[in-house]
């Protein structure tokens, strides 16, 4: 099973950078959270956060994070989904393709989103992140060209797309070691589109 997730930003949200600003504020709160040791420049990787991987607080004498610190890193995923739910001008969606590669799933999703925009005569940018492939920005103009955008979008929103993809995968895969994640996606992103069958 391959899961893809996307953030769909309307033109105003992309131009104003409002969604990126909200995500940057979330990251700033993480930097100043005394329960975490997240530094500026750190990339928030959903898989590592779900595993509770992170630096121990400077007051900890242990080599790795203790149980409370691990939970704090895991909870960053939930906090991130809460922020994503309120990103201005942004919709979220997921797609599922059984028995295919992440690349094929992303291509099928982009084709479907592009057809939708061609039919509506609209254009948009989307961030697509599969559970195993690197996230990228795509221009969903009413043309068949679906190459990643050369200009890229706000880099930080790629992290947000990864949060959605990872939590969607755990929701559908039902891995026992990640059972705490199973309901976070439908609970916190109840308005998410999909999962679209590809």
Provide a brief overview of the structure.
This protein has helices at 11-16, 18-32, 46-50, 67-85, 102-120, 156-173, 184-188; strands at 2-9, 90-97, 125-130, 136-139, 193-197. By secondary structure, the protein is of the alpha+beta class. The longest helix is centred in the middle third of the chain and has 19 residues, at 67-85.
Describe the structure.
It is built from seven helices and five strands. The protein is globular, with a radius of gyration of 17 Å. Helices cover 44% and strands 16% of the residues. Strands 4-3-1-2-5 form a five-stranded mixed β-sheet, with helices on both faces.
The order of strands across the largest sheet is 4-3-1-2-5
Helix content: 40-55%
Count of helices?
Answer: 7
- List low-pLDDT spans: 146-152
Write the H/E string, N to C.
EHHHHEHEEHHE
Structural class: alpha+beta
């Amino acid at each position: 099973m391959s899961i893809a997730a996307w953030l769909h930003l309307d033109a105003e949200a992309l131009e104003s950078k409002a969604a990126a600003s909200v995500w940057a504020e979330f990251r700033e709160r993480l930097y100043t959270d005394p329960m975490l040791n997240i530094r500026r420049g750190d990339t928030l990787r959903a898989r590592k956060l779900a595993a509770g991987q992170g630096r121990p607080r400077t007051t900890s004498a242990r080599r790795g994070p203790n149980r409370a610190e691990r939970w704090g890193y895991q909870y960053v995923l939930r906090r991130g989904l809460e922020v994503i739910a309120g990103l201005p001008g942004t919709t979220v969606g997921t797609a599922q393709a059984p028995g295919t590669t992440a690349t094929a799933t992303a291509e099928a999703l982009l084709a479907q989103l592009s057809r939708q925009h061609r039919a509506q005569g609209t254009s948009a940018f989307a961030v697509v992140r599969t559970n195993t492939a690197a996230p990228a920005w795509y221009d969903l103009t009413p043309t068949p060209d679906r190459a990643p955008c050369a200009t890229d979008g706000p880099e930080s929103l790629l992290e947000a797309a990864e949060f959605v993809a990872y939590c969607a995968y755990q929701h559908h895969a039902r891995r026992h070691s990640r059972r705490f994640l199973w309901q976070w996606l439908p609970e916190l992103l109840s308005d998410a589109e999909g999962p679209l069958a590809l």
